[in-house]
Amino acid sequence: MALKTIITYPIEVCLRLIGLWPNSSYRILQRIFWTVVMGTCVTFQIWYCISYFKTADLPDLLDGLSVTLSNTITFIKLIILWFNYRKLRNILIFVFEDWNNCDLTHQNKEFMMGNLVICSRISKFLVVIYSMTCILYSASTMLMSNDIGDDIGELNLNNKKLLLKMRFPFDVTIFPLYEFITIAQFAFEYSVAFMAGMLMALSAALSLHTEQGPTILAKCFPYYVAVNCEAFVLCYTGEYLASKSENINRAAYTMFWYNLNKQNSRTVLFILMQTRSPLTLTAGKFVTLCVETFAN
């Protein structure tokens, strides 16, 4: 195999870990390991969503559903790739042979090296983005306050919050089981994020290996950026409205309304009643548009 190939080192590490690298050892054991790990974790996540579908708060339920759906999709991708291992192996071997071809012209070599640079940047960018997303999500989940009710108190017993929304058939708050599960959940979520990013980088690498690869990426990337920018603008607008609404309520409550005359006191009371619930921007009255929703 060539020392330099459009399949960058992070992609190679990912393919080796999940048992998809051509002619790698222990492929069967790796597939069994990830099947057991991902199957068990996704099952516990789905169990949580089903159990607390009617009792959990909507933001909490959406948080659990979004992570569960993301992990389930990644698991399905792995299963599909495992069933199509021979096709992927032949594609990768063809790519390696193409890069080892000594009869390539100088123009073709420059074209391939240019694609290598682009693919390397895409891989590094995805590693950084997915790593930062996983770390920030974990930090915000563990450090921010949790308003889960008493009906799901096992997830918040003694102020102990799980990183991922899962339901277990045993008590997870005892020492050192809670600490072990928290570390295991972070390792699992980071592994899933790394897999998702590198599988996306693999698709970009295989596209760049073709002559029309850069054109395809040039068409898709601006649309992807535009969609995310539009979602961010809407979520930021909702966050701004909610923040200003809370400021109005706080300002009305802290003023010396009890020193006002009767008519002005009623006006302040009316403002307090109207701003008791913050003004929010929703999508079809199903999900609140805010920065937290955009991050999830």
From TrEMBL:
InterPro entries linked to this entry: 7tm6_olfct_rcpt
Gene Ontology annotations of biological process type: signal transduction
Transmembrane segments: 32-53, 65-85, 122-140, 180-202
Keywords: Cell membrane, Membrane, Olfaction, Receptor, Sensory transduction, Transducer, Transmembrane, Transmembrane helix
Ribosomal protein recorded as keyword: no
Lipid bilayer topology: Multi-pass membrane protein
GO cellular component, one term: plasma membrane
GO MF terms, alphabetically ordered: odorant binding; olfactory receptor activity
Location in the cell: Cell membrane
PANTHER family according to UniProt: ODORANT RECEPTOR (PTHR21137), ODORANT RECEPTOR 19A-RELATED (PTHR21137:SF35)
Protein name, as recorded: Odorant receptor
Species the sequence originates in: Heterotrigona itama
